[in-house]
Amino acid sequence: xxxxxxxxxxxxxxxxxxxxxxxxxxxxxxxxxxxxxxxxxxxxxxxxxxxxxxxxxxxxxxxxxxxxxxxxxxxxxxxxxxxxxxxxxxxxxxxxxxxxxx
Length: 102
Hints:
Order of helices and strands: HHH
Shape: elongated
Number of strands: 0
Largest sheet: none
Helix content: over 70%
Distance between the termini: 57 Å
CATH architecture: Orthogonal Bundle
Number of domains: 1
Mean pLDDT: 90
Structural class: mainly alpha
Low-confidence stretches: none
């Protein structure tokens, strides 16, 4: 039987993979995908807690839907910013992006 521990272990593993990707990747699109992976790990943890701690209340599912909406908006805005930077600079390497420096 799948318990709460299994959901939390999966969530922690996905979050760790996403965090590793954010720190190691040198491509802005890959970093954006790793952030999405981290948000999905949080969704799994929230759904698991909601299922096993308060099964009658739908608070976990409501938070999951809210996070999905925010993640979709973040992905759309992030991709638009990455495309704009690529058109201006010709590269999406995060080390070469210095738009906010004086």
